[in-house]
Fold this protein.
Amino acid sequence: MSATPIELPRWADTALVPLVSVVAALLVAGLVVLGIGESPLEATALLLKGSLGSLEGLGFTLYYATNFVFTGLAVAVAFHAGLFNIGGEGQATVAGIFAALACLWLAPLPGILLVPLAILAAAVGGAAWAFIPGYLQAVRGSHVVITTIMFNFIAATLIVYLLVEVIGKPGSMQPETADFAKHATLTPMHQLLAPLGLKLPKTPLNSAFLLALAALVAVWLLIYRSRLGYAIRTVGANPRAAAYAGISPARITMVAMALSGALAGGLAVNEVMGVQHRLVLDFTAGYGFVGVAVALMGRGHPVGVGLAALLFGALYQGGAELSFDKPTITRDMVVVIGGVVILFAGALEGLFRRLVAGTLRLGRGG
Amino acid sequence: MTGTAPAAIELYSISKSFGPVAANRNVSLTVAAGSIHGIVGENGAGKSTLMSILYGFYEADSGEIRVGGEKRTISSPAEAIATGIGMVHQHFMLVEPLSVVENVVLGAEGGTWLKRGIAKARAELARLSAQYGLAIDPDATVASLSVGLQQRVEILKALYRGAEVLILDEPTAVLTPAEADQLFELLRALKAQGKTVILITHKLREIMAVTDRVSVMRRGEMVAHVETISTSPAALAEAMVGRRVLLRVEKAPRQRGAPVLEAAGLSVVDARGHETLREASLTLYEGEIVGIAGVAGNGQSELLEVLAGLVQPTRGVIRLDGRILTTADRSPANLRRLGLMHIPEDRQKTGLVTAFAAAENMILGYHDDPAFGPGPLLAPSAIRCHALAGMQAYDVRPADPTLKTAKFSGGNQQKLVLAREIERAPKVLLVGQPTRGVDIGAIEFIHRRLIALRDAGVAILLVSVELEEVMALSDRILALCGGRITGERAAEEADERDLGLLMAGVSERAA
């Protein structure tokens, strides 16, 4: 019956509890591996080697992490305003459409103009797609969890229609656009770092990674150091106090959702402009949903989101390697681990908080 | 038998710390069986912590609890209930859409099938009601009951679970004076039947009226145990604060200036379509305090909210400095710019974001002030400096701007709000419940600040459930009943009975 929140020291709150959640999730996943007759230790070794053991593996890990940073930040920003944006998939899809149209239509422009404009288009597309649920929430009271999920479906259908009927490559049986011009794409990291004398293996990692790092810093500045971020946090923590303070919760709801959608658009920048170099179906591949786990694990703080994105990047890349080496462990296993982490980091967090609080008290008493 | 019977509750050198803060230090307390025992102390003195330890919410770091002479460890409310300790919280723990009897059995349904438990509870309720004279309809929906009756349901709940010792935490905070008197009758009846009552309060009048013994806490320690008949409010107040306290407010005659805020024919309709404020008209002059007298829920909150721009009136005109305020002018942010500041009635729900650090709350409503950072950014160091200055000027304890607001006591939270709004040099100050849940030392401080503001020429509108406070501070008093202003009195000529009639809606003075 006690509803008193468990108070923990800051370091335990921000580092220890998420760590315990991850370790517990890995233990449970290990049991599942054991259940299908494989050695969890060997699987872990393969996973670590595949994700962090080589420059190539690391490149893939960081490429995945780039996606998770964007979608994780998208969820985190909405979270601070008290909103649960689970429409990252749809917002990234629309952002991809916008970016693709910019890359195709503005192709005559030089790269130095075209690329920023296309990135901007992606942000605007994502923002617009998130703004509508934000508007409906603020003005009509329609819950964003429902509307953003619905908007995922609408976006998924929209992209099929556009690729098949409108902007598909003429004469192609594939639902995809023509390839973008070379100067409309983002530079792969191995090319970017070559002039510095660094020889990296060829991986999908591209300059969108740098954009992701910038986004982490920008979101930190926004949330914790700006007037807008203050307003966002006030609305998220206490809408009544916000109204009292002259901050319009309705306005902040719309602004926060738009910002959230713009961040989700980063996923499209990485995938469409950085890797595929054309618009294809399903390029969002569930990264938008994993963003929820990333934000939960990262506790909404950009540093946490960065670390969690790295973890999920390693799981994705290591999991791919693992399923290659051990066909009995399919990629679905990684999804299972992700699911367990979400369960532990999100839903069962209170359990671990209690455990950690108890252990700390024991340590102090002794 | 007296003298030989074991005490109902004995606490021996209970200590409890939250991090570096010692909430209870070697607290000992003996509560005689069949008595009403008062515990008084300022907010943050450790009363609630002590009772939470007794009720199993917290575990003491050290110390011993004896119930009926036997040593016990109470590590959860369930264990407290099992040992015969019941608690009535300041904020009721009732399920409003359920009936009285359903609320009473909640958590003690007695088996899988509800029907049998309900039938048993109904019989038991009838018996308890008869025994203690607690008339209540077992099938009434809790939401439809008055606050006083809801409190009875809480008490019945505790008795139904076999409570021998009943802890009441600030029980009269939400009651009208008449309801409070009924509660005291009930407590006396409980005592006559051999139950033990522990009453936590900061209202000395109640302590004097109803308790047998009083224990006084100050800064986590027990400083006095006395027989009620051998003490006085002044002595208790002194023990609580540790120095002499002025219970009366001293103020110079007012220097009334020009009219600042004028409202004419203001009406407010709430979300359910009820007209909660009807045709209210009032004028605030510079350098005066206008008090609103009324039983809670008669339109005071709406009056404050509509003047502060939080609610739009359905009819009526508001003038500030002679200028009519349009709907756009009446946004809270704009009103602040025009010098109309508002200390809301509920500081935790409206006036503060309790999850924020104190420093962040000190800029709530003023986060657009260029003093707090360059351009769109905020500078944490500037915000902390500003907060520290305000906290020191208003004696907020601890004066730590980085501490989470939820960790401050009620009085200190209120001082944070006060510091924030008053430091902005208001022209008009709307004040709601400035001293609700605030300890005596802080009340004195807050009253002096308000009087000083008035003397400096600020127009103040005061809403308070404490009629005494309204009468002590105001220069003029308006009575509200059913959303209507039912009368006006100059403070000198107002008396409690007369105001009580106005508050009850008996319009102008008969005869």
Remarks:
- The radius of gyration of chain A is 21 Å.
